[in-house]
Amino acid sequence: MPYLCSRREWLARLALAGLAAPVSLPARFFERATAAPNPLPSAPAAFSSQEEALLDDIERAACRYFWEQAGKGTGMVKDRALAGGHDSRTLSSIAATGFGLSALAIAVSRGWRSEKDARTRVRDTLRFLWEKMPHERGFFYHFVDMNTAERRFRSEVSSIDSSILLCGAIAAAEYFRDSEISHLARAIYERVDWPWLLDGALTLSMGWKPKTGFLEARWDTYSELMMIYLLGLGSPTHPLPAACWDAWRRPIFHDYGLSYIGARAPLFVHQYSHAWFDFRGKRDRYANYFQNSILATQAHKRFCLGLRKQFPDYSDRLWGITASDSSHGYVGWGGPPAMGPIDGTLVPAAAGGSLPFLPQDCALVLETMRRSYGRRAWHRYGLLDAFNPLTGWYDADVLGIDLGIMALMAENARTGFVWNTFMKNPAAQRGMARAGFHPE
């Protein structure tokens, strides 16, 4: 199969921005629609010793990827690599690099990597980003060469991927407490000109290209966008207007007896902002977004179980579809409602990235994948990006962003480590305050 550019959310996001919201309701309806049916978990989930061992293996394998599949002297992490390692590709994504910076902190906290080595890697990465990485008003290109920083695939200056990178840099700076790391992370973040990407509106453009300017697609409907706006609101140098937080739509979906703010998009839209920003026990005037992601994940599980007659591999122990590789290339699939040519493929990052929301349900899925399919689905960097037990297709690759969301959310579900580290940052706190978050 030819390698199709893993533009990840890029295609999915562009499609998302052009879709009309299925339901548009005034703000007064949101609180009722997203009311929590059960008490909100206020502490990390309690996993069995067997589950802890599995999550340990998943995190350790992902951290190994971020250590091994990065440019020497640059720290830029590969977009993807062969599951067994020994990959010669040099394509890096700035989002994978952001996940990698947080993964370095996890690896040190868990004793898998020496603090000295990790600190050096973080310094090298931030120096490269500050001194040599091409940027536009502080925003970085989505894809670059991991050794030279040359722009690849004519990719866009990306608002979401830059935000993932910034979150990783902030988390690393808060953990390592090194003067140079702190200075570089702050300088990289404070260089970003958030209002520029508004292009005269109150919602952000998804990106910019040198020859054509701003992308028409905008972050104007619920998705993984929360991290972008919160970083922009928290900036001490080029902040977004507070009104931007209210400018994006929050459509209500009604699926399987559940009502939640959602989007016709893969499951990752309910995961990514939660990797760093801690929404537990907080709400703005619209919703408790942590509880909202619980409801959305429950709806996704029920959606998958509803496909069992068509795809008998799906069960209570085996479910989960989000944007991933497939036997036909990269697909932005999932549901509800159904998106993409769903064919029975399973995507570990669907359950892995949702561990804080449905801890036991998601851990059971990961345990089943490892136990029943591990001979072909588990390699040096953990679970493959995707596989299909019905057809016998197993991906050759792992993707940095999928390993990243699994590692960070596994650690958050177990200890809250990434949340607790990242939320020490004044800009993160200021962003949430300006958005109107308060204890529930």
Account of the 3D structure:
The chain is built from 15 helices and 19 strands. It is an alpha+beta fold. The strands form 9 sheets. Strands 6-7-8 form a 3-stranded antiparallel β-sheet. Strands 1-18 form a two-stranded antiparallel sheet.
Question: Unreliable runs, pLDDT <50, ≥5 residues?
Answer: 1-41
Helical amount: 40-55%
Q: What integer is the average pLDDT?
A: 91
CATH architecture: Alpha/alpha barrel
Query: What's the CATH H-level superfamily name?
Result: Glycoside hydrolase 144 (GH144)
Compute the number of helices. 15
Approximately what portion of the residues adopt beta-strand conformation?
5-15%
CATH class: Mainly Alpha
The major pleated sheet works out as: 3 strands, antiparallel
How many distinct folded domains? 1
Shape: globular
Strand order of the largest sheet: 6-7-8
CATH topology: Glycosyltransferase
User: Could you say which structural class the secondary elements and strand pairing correspond to?
Assistant: alpha+beta
Tell how many strands the DSSP assignment holds.
Answer: 19
Radius of gyration based on Cα positions: 20 Å
Q: What is the distance, rounded to the nearest whole angstrom, between the alpha carbons of the first and last residues?
A: 50 Å
